[in-house]
Here is the input.
Amino acid sequence: MELSRTIFWDTDYGSIDWEKNARYVIARVIMFGTIEDWRQVQSYYGMNRIKEEMVQARDLDPKSLSFLSCILKIPSKNFRCYTQIQSNPGHWVY
Here is the structure.
């Protein structure tokens, strides 16, 4: 699999284990990747594996969560990152 290297700016691209780090790779592609990166991830992992990994992801941004909720047909509240966000409220805006 050949993904955009800019997605992994803080990681040594050559040392990424695509199977062991599947959740990290999929989350990065969803948050920062191109449509071509998304297609490659879909073809490599399949939608079932993407679903399994992303439901357990802890740190998806709201836009990525909404995208996955629509694509996978799963309510946002069923994602682990949704419950993590709810238990860690942000600062109060004055």
